[in-house]
Amino acid sequence: MMKRTVLLLGLLAAATMTVHAGPQEEVEKALREGLPEVALVKLEAMRPADEAGVRWVALKRAEALLRRGDAEGALRALPGEAPPALRIGIARARKDWEGVLTLTAQVDTEAAPILLARVEALARLGRRPEAIALLERSGDEPALRLCLSEQWLDAGEAARAKEVLETISAQKTEEAALKGWRRVLEARILLAEGRAAAALERLAGMGEGEAELAPELRLGALFATAEAHRQLGDPAKAASLLERFLWDHREAAEIGQVFERLDAVYASDEGVSYAALDQMARRRSRLRAGYAVYYRARAFLRSQRGDRALRLLAPFAETYPGHPILARALLLRGQLQAEGGETAAALETLEEAMRAAGDERQRGEIEMATATAQYQAGEFVLAATLFEAAGARDPSLRAEATFRAALCWLHQGNRERFEADFRLLHEAADPRAEGLLLEEARLLASRGDPGTADRLRRFLLLFPRSPLRPQANFLLAEWELTTGQPDTAAHYLEAANPAGEKPALPGEATDALAIFVADAREGRDDEKIVERCRRYLREHPEGARRLEVRMKLGEVFFRQGDFAGAQNEFETVARESPGTPLAEGALYLAGQAATRSMSAKGTERALALFEEVARSGGGLRFQARLAQAALKNQSGQPGEAILLYDAVLEAAPPKEIRFAALAGKARSRAEQGGKEALEAALDLYRKLATEAAETAEAGTAGEETLWRSQALYQSGRTLEALERPEEALAAYYDVLESGREQPQEYFWYYKAGFEAGRLCETLRNWEGAIAIYRKMAALEGPRREEAHARMAQLRLEHFIWE
Q: CA quadruple 739, 745, 746, 750: dihedral positive or negative?
């Protein structure tokens, strides 16, 4: 607001002015001529003899300090009783907007300066509609109408601003300050209409005699001129104008606003030079240098160089104590420390920032940053409390603080507090409520919570026109796929990006999910899935899920018997994600694909891939060794296979790996042939059977029963090779007995049972064979009828009836 400062200071001068001669008149003259420093020197020399004189000196000292830009000093110097205008001026300078509202409400006057101060406070507190309403019913005084036009402009309503401005006759704004204010508003309206060249013409000459311009009017003209050059495609010119002002007014109170506008120009031009900032940071003016350092740090942040920004801000408090931007510099430093995981240092810095803060809005922002740091550290209850305190401190932060507090309660697991905050936002029609409910669904999905789908459907029900609906449908599609409902997933995926409409979600995400949905559906078409994968990789070469898509493509190739294609995809994934669990799994699968090639070259490559997995030290290292050993066996090298199995056993692997290594080593020993090797294999199978049985007895029966059954079956086979049929029959029989207790384990049960029956028939023990087949026929299972048929046949052939 261009005119409010001049009007307000004029009012307070009138309120405190008394006609005196001598030193008092000199003080008044210095203040009128804009020399508060001179007034302060003269006041320091005065020794008033009465109470009225003491009060007058105190009031003038406060006024002089305020005019010099030292609002805190003015507040300290203020006597107990002071004119409301002076108190309002101090509150405004301190950006205590709540205080300005309180003080202006206590003044029984409709004077323009008081109204303008109240309007500014309302606008600063985010209550611009109230400010506009106040101005619209406050009469036709030119300053008030100009202010109304400005408020509409600041609200983004250039057409309304123009309408108001056109109702003010030019004759009523002939006074220099009002005329300048009007010209700046007209230029801003032209800028809003995209007529930058016309705006420059309207501003031409306003810089001449600039010493006569009020500071805010001078700034308005400067900012409008810079914006015009920026719109005309010359950000360098805009930056140059602002930089020149800073060079020429290094101690001006308003340079903070100029630096902020300059930073916005820098942000709009990637090729901008920061040489001027660097030079200002090295010059003597501590006021200007402090601003330059802070905004240089902001520039480093924009170029993704947070480390440089942090180093630049580290000594700020020591170098620029009491600087107007100290609190903001400490706030930024604390935020950077928190982002870097330095929570303790961040909290210490933010506490220092709170002590340096000059107004409630700034304190609220610092409290928000402190709460964010606690949130990142997992201190959800403390963070929620701080967010709520920040919202109570500054009404303009309340909605965002409620949103963040709700997130804290969500992660804390406090559903009641989360729902309460959600309702507050939802009832206020705040769009953050939509994001909150969607975030809850995301969190539940990440935890595998069964309530995920209900939450997402609740979102779709509550927010039928939300722009976030495509995301909700996409999340539902992912959830339904995860829970084994690919057809339902396909439905929600179609709803996320309806055919024939402009895609609401990135094609990369939906294209990837479509691949996995198509792969999971019944009657899948592998050729179409391959085409989808190839199209995804072609259209999204840097897509976030490209490695998953390659893995799926490799899986489909493997399924189709294209082992070379599968191997290529798996190896590509491994090379593009080195050192990750995904790379380990991809290498292992590449080895499996190479194994299926049934060629010497393929076996050699498979051994090399498994070796790479084994040496990586990851979770598949033992499986890789087992796979190498199996290949050695297939290649007729049981001795080398045994060495690999021994290496696994010596590493004290998990029991399942140990059981597999024992079984593999036994098989390798049997492959070597000869009585000694077969006896060694038998010992290993018996050892495996014993260990598996002991594990099962310890209360973890499951896979252990399968290992015991396999070991007993293989013991029987080995005993037959050693020509010990009775012992082999006993081993097979043990599998049958354990199978009666574990009827779900059919594979080894039937293998052992039919081998036992065959062996009885070889020994011409027809009754025993019939008993074996009867045992299998009595159990519900896939080969029950086969056992029953064999039993019936033996009875017929050998006339055995019970």
A: negative
For position 249, what pLDDT does the model report? 85
Identify which of 189, 180, 192 has the alpha carbon closest to the alpha carbon of residue 219: 180
Domain assignment of residue 752, yes or no: no
**DSSP letter (8 states) at residue 174:** -
**Which of helix, strand or coil describes residue 377?**
coil
E strand or H helix at 65: helix 51-68
The CATH number of the domain holding residue 34 is 1.25.40
Helices (H), 137-175: 142-154, 158-166
Q: Give the separation between CA 733 and CA 713, rounded to whole angstroms.
A: 9
In the chain the first and final C-alpha atoms are separated, in Å, by 113
Q: How many domains does the chain have?
A: 1
Does residue 227 fall inside a structural domain? no
Residue 25 CA, distance from chain mean position: 63
Main-chain phi, psi angles of 467, to 5 degrees: -70, -10
Measure Cα distances from 583 to 369, 526, 547, 562, 570 in Å.
Answer: 38, 24, 10, 21, 8
pLDDT at 88: 86
Query: Coil, strand or helix: which one is 303?
Result: coil
Number of H-type helices and E-type strands within the chain: 45, 0
Residue-wise pLDDT for 470-482, tens only, equals 999 999 999 999 9
Identify residue 526 by its one-letter amino acid code. Answer: D
Helix or strand (DSSP H, E) at 650: helix 638-650
Could you tell me the pLDDT band of residue 624, with boundaries at 50, 70 and 90?
very high
